[in-house]
Amino acid sequence: MQKASYEYDVLVIGDVFCDIATKPIRAYPERDRQIGCEFMLSIGGQAGNCAAACASLGLRTAIICKLSNDVLSNWLLSELERLGVVCIARSSERKPHPGITVSIAFEDGSRSMLTDRGANQDLMREDVETELLGRARFVMRAGHWNTEGLFTVNKDLLRIAKSHDAFTGVDIGWSAYLGWTGSAKQTVFELLPFTDFLFVNEAELKELSAEPEQEQEQDILARGCRNVIVHRGAKGSSWVTSDFTVSSPSFKVRVVSPTGAGDVFNAGFIYAFLEGKAAEECLEFANACAALHISRTRAHNAFPRLDEVQLESLNKQSSL
Questions:
Q1: How far apart are CA 191 and CA 207, in angstroms?
Q2: What is the pLDDT of residues 175-231, one digit of tens each?
Q3: Does residue 301 come out as left (phi exceeding 0), alpha (psi in the -120 to 50 range) or beta?
Q4: How far apart are CA 26 and CA 38, in angstroms?
Q5: How far apart are CA 78 and CA 43, in angstroms?
Q6: Which of 190, 77, 152 is nearest to 170 (CA)?
Q7: Per CATH, is 3-15+49-94+122-319 categorized as 3.40.1190.20?
């Protein structure tokens, strides 16, 4: 891992959203009823969140994405750049706004989301400069389902990245538009031979693999993926390979803003992995990042910083 030979530590390719999220409410109002709540406006999308979190941890980060020419798109660009992300973003001529997600958080830690993919649907092969794939230590393909325009070339992008000795990661997220049909899942399976790290949560893993729960990770590994990283929510996280399985418990925090926790976890994992940390340390560091993220409001697009994560880990150790 020679840092000096790469311009970027992380290149993220994928979706960017404007997230409109509530602070936790007890229950959704009945139809034709109204309740008061507080909203948070923030960067969103699997790729947008991951890139912002990577940059906040101090990684040299770039993102390839598609936005529009409207006020929300300009705001997202300015916020990503303020956090230190190099944005390679073209404007959609077809979509009048970026992706938008309305996320409703509940006091029990759950959430419900409504999503409009917006300009993300127009992210195409011509928007990805092949030359950039050889300038990053880690190439992360995030927001798979929200960027269908890359379905036919995803495999090639990952293959090119690996030909330049980059590590590759994929986070598919939940298939809200295409469902989990055989043809939809095939768009993921064809990427696995070129994927070093597949990031999934338990619900996504269950839909992706038809095998019994205890065999799902091995099913994905048998399809060519080298490492499966599983988000397990309150149960923590796991790193599964054909040689070992390592798990790490979650940090116990009050949930304020769960949206984007998985993406921030991914950023933390990438940081720790590139730093050469052991498997359990990578998971613990990623869990700490996610815990910080969900325990505070997303006002001012504040993603966890390295010093904050280190302090969170020290506090956990001192409480044991």
A1: 17
A2: 999 999 999 999 999 999 999 999 999 999 999 999 999 999 999 999 999 999 999
A3: left
A4: 13
A5: 10
A6: 190
A7: yes
Joined together, the tokens standing for residue 103 give 């996320």
Task: Read off the pLDDT of residues 104-145 as tens digits, 9 standing for 90 and up.
Answer: 989 887 889 899 999 999 999 999 999 999 999 999 999 999
Q: Which two tokens stand for residue 65?
A: 């994405």
Cα–Cα distance measured from residue 12 to residue 45, given in angstroms and rounded to the nearest whole number: 11
Cα-based distances in Å from 215 to 2, 30, 199, 240, 246 = 36, 41, 17, 11, 15
Question: Concatenated DSSP letters for 212-230?
Answer: -GGGHHHHHHHTT-SEEEE
Q: Is the per-residue pLDDT at 40 higher than 50?
A: yes
pTM passes above 0.70: yes
Phi then psi for 87, rounded to 5 degrees? Answer: -100, 115
Burial pattern 70-83, b for ≥16 Cβ within 10 A else e, equals: bebbeebbebbeeb
Query: Token pair of 163, please?
Result: 């030909």
Give me the residue spans of the domains in the chain. 3-15+49-94+122-319
How far apart are the C-alpha atoms of 234 and 110, rounded to whole Å?
A: 11
For residue 271, CA distances in Å to 9, 76, 82, 205, 281 come to 9, 23, 20, 23, 11
List phi, psi (to 5°) of 63: -135, 140
Q: Quickly list DSSP for 271-286.
A: HHHHTT--HHHHHHHH
**Token couple for 201:** 């949560």
Q: DSSP state, 29? A: P
Q: How many CA atoms lie within 13 A of 73 on its CB side?
A: 22
Polymer length of the chain: 320
